[in-house]
Design a protein that fits this description.
The chain is an alpha+beta fold and about 650 residues long. The protein contains 20 helices and 10 strands. The radius of gyration is 32 Å and the shape is elongated. Belongs to the ABC-4 integral membrane protein family.
């Protein structure tokens, strides 16, 4: 008897291969992708790289979580479609004498067969392409390291655990679904949605309101920190708004068009509006899913490709000189000692120090309240109000900039990095009020570490040490420090004539400088780790985008098949009422085109509106060239649009083939 059910289940899979195979292929791809990312993030291959690429593994781990969540949602959504498409088949089984228990048993066996097939082939392809993806990742950040074939046991275990759990939940879903259906419902469920949909004005207004709110946030938020905190709120608002646009707004608009008798009672408009009303009711959720997936692809690929394209500029911003020395909580006199040690270290290495920049500074991280910035202990409140202030003397600024600026006591030159703006004409730092004489457009000695900060950096140039001491004294009082303790920061940055001797210069300097509060870092020694971080974002972006695209193609394929079977009978009815085949095809083609490309149009609009939002977030990753992001986004939209058109042409052929059967 068990053999009978097994054969019956296998025959069902073969008989329904038009529906089952896309599901199996997409599940295999998803499982393989999850294994590969898990293997890279938890395996030991990347640990063998110079400096470990720890940031890369953190980004990969984030990708694993995203794929795990999306896989569960996608597999459940497509599986529910498969069950819905077969309810008539289950109804016939009931008429032929099968009980619900027997039908559920067959479906459970089908699900088990699908689970085994997809897990075996998914893991097989994951193991096969794991090495290839590792080499691609290494190529992205120019790390010429090669490893042998390695299986990551923890990745295999987590893959089986996750997808085994998903398929187990699908088994439970199947049993519950069958147990709740009645025989009459089984035979009629496919046609339950044939009543004309009603206009839902409240939901339509809510959908437009949510989408508008998300758009408003994208256009009005100026601070990158606040952009991150509000990003998920805006995303959720637009996602829910998108669902309501397809479910309520579209139907409400079509109903208003129908109520316009002059417009509606024209043959072309009558057929199109009526057809679109029913299509939107049947496909609203699917179209919203396609729209959201399209938006995810456009944003993910546009953002990560822009990050990678701008990684060289970001690298040079973070490391403006070949070698950088920082003295923390030091003294003013220490700067001269550091400069002497730099000269000795370079001479001993046989190289020359060039383009040397050096100055003392006072570094304050505080909260901006109006025009006042002050250090605060404990809760600093909203993160978007935090600022980094670098206070330097005018003589040091003139030395670095090779200019001859002048200041009076109580005046300042102010430079703010590209993350933010400051409109006031005065600024108060730790209780010391300064009038802004000039707002600078450039600061040649800008700190690479400050550029990498999440907060805006204010470079405050004061006349002399008097103003510096006032701010330092107030800061020490706030920190309960004695006057003898140092709060000055030293900065020395320089290039060397022979880049290959960077490590030797750093080694020589460390031999000369024994104090623990002096840090030296080289540009070349950080290149692999820094660029690898950006490369990992591109890698994850491509990986996740591919999963989104595969999922989208499967949903579009199922939608076209569903449309084909729904329209097959209506095709004959329209012929009987006197419409020619040409009129019918034109009507259906216009409806299908509108339905099919509406998600792409709205997704493109979502992406374009989100540009200011994303542009501010990218600044936190030192991606300050907006042109790079614009080009990346434009290319992504164009390429995806062509791909979308190709998918339409392929799936529409399947649609018309079903209609003609």
């Amino acid at each position: 008897m068990n053999l009978f059910y097994s054969k019956f289940a296998l025959n069902n899979l073969v008989k329904n291969k038009r529906f089952i195979l896309p599901y199996i292929f997409s599940a295999i791809f998803t499982i393989a992708s999850f294994y590969i990312l898990t293997s890279l993030s938890l395996g030991k291959n990347l640990d063998k790289l110079p400096q470990g690429i720890s940031a890369t593994k953190q980004v990969l781990s984030l990708g694993v979580i995203v794929i795990a969540i999306f896989s569960a949602i996608f597999l459940f959504y497509t599986y529910s479609f498969l069950i819905k498409r077969r309810v008539r088949e289950f109804g016939l089984y009931s008429v032929l004498g099968m009980t619900k228990k027997q039908i559920a048993r067959i479906l459970i066996l089908e699900t088990i067969f699908i689970a085994v097939i997809t897990l075996v082939f998914g893991l097989a392809f994951g193991l096969l392409f794991d090495k290839l993806m590792l080499l691609v990742l290494l190529k992205l950040f120019t790390a010429g390291v090669s490893f042998g074939f390695v299986i990551t046991p923890i990745a295999v275990f987590l893959t089986i655990l996750l997808f085994g759990g998903i398929f187990f939940l699908l088994l439970i879903y199947t049993v519950i679904k069958i147990s709740r259906l009645k025989i009459v419902a089984l035979l009629k469920e496919e046609n339950n949605g044939e009543r004309e949909p009603k206009a839902r004005f409240i939901l339509a207004i809510l959908g437009l309101g949510l989408t508008g709110y998300g758009y408003y946030l994208a256009q009005t938020i100026q601070n990158p920190i606040k952009a991150i905190t509000m990003f998920f709120i805006a995303v959720l608002a637009v996602i829910f708004g998108t669902y309501l646009i397809f479910m309520a707004v579209s139907i409400t608009v079509l109903k208003l068009m129908k109520n316009n008798k002059t417009f509606y009672y024209k043959p072309k408009n009558f057929i199109s509006v009526s057809g679109l009303l029913y299509r939107m009711k049947r496909n609203a959720v699917g179209l919203a899913n396609i729209c959201i997936l399209s938006t995810m692809v456009l944003v993910t690929m546009g953002t990560t490709s822009a990050l990678y394209a701008g990684s060289e500029e970001a690298y040079n911003t973070r490391f403006p000189r070949d070698i950088i020395v920082n003295g923390y909580r030091s003294t003013e006199g220490k700067l001269t000692e550091i400069e002497k040690n730099v000269k000795k270290a370079t001479q001993d290495a046989g190289v020359e120090a060039k383009d040397l920049v050096s100055y003392n500074m006072l570094n304050v991280v505080g909260r901006l309240n109006g025009t006042e910035i002050s250090y605060e202990t404990g809760n600093v409140g909203s993160l978007d109000k935090l600022r980094t202030v670098v206070v330097i003397e005018l003589k040091d600024y003139n030395k670095v900039s090779k200019e001859q600026k002048t200041l009076n006591t109580g005046e300042t030159l102010l430079f703010i990095d590209k993350k933010g703006k400051y409109e006031a004409n005065e600024i108060t730092v730790q209780g010391v009020n300064l009038k802004i004489k000039e707002k600078l457009t450039d600061f040649p000695g800008a700190l690479g570490t400050a550029a990498a900060n999440a907060f805006d950096t204010y470079y405050v140039v004061v006349k002399d040490n008097t103003d510096v001491k006032k701010i330092e004294s107030a800061l020490k009082k706030k920190l309960n420090m004695s006057d003898e303790e140092g709060e000055v920061y030293n900065y020395v940055g320089f290039n060397i004539s022979d880049k290959t001797k960077e490590a030797k210069v750093i080694e020589n300097f460390k031999q000369l400088e024994k104090e623990g509060n002096i840090n030296i870092e080289g540009k070349a020694e950080n290149e692999t780790n820094f660029k690898g971080f950006y490369a990992s974002f591109l890698f994850i972006g491509v990986f996740i985008s591919m999963i989104f695209v595969v999922s989208q193609v499967v949903i579009m394929y199922y939608k076209q098949i569903s449309e084909g079977y729904e329209d097959k009978d209506k095709f004959g009815i329209m012929r009987k009422v006197g419409l020619t085949d040409r009129q019918i095809k034109q009507s259906i083609r216009s409806q299908v085109l509108m339905i099919f490309f509406a998600p792409l149009a709205i997704a493109t609009l979502h992406t374009v509106v989100a540009y200011p939002f994303i542009e501010k977030i990218l600044k936190l990753f030192l991606a300050t060239d907006n042109n790079v992001f614009l080009i990346a986004l434009a290319v992504t939209i164009a390429v995806f649009g062509v791909f979308y058109l190709i998918v339409y042409l392929i799936t529409s052929r399947i649609y018309y083939r079903i209609i003609k059967e």
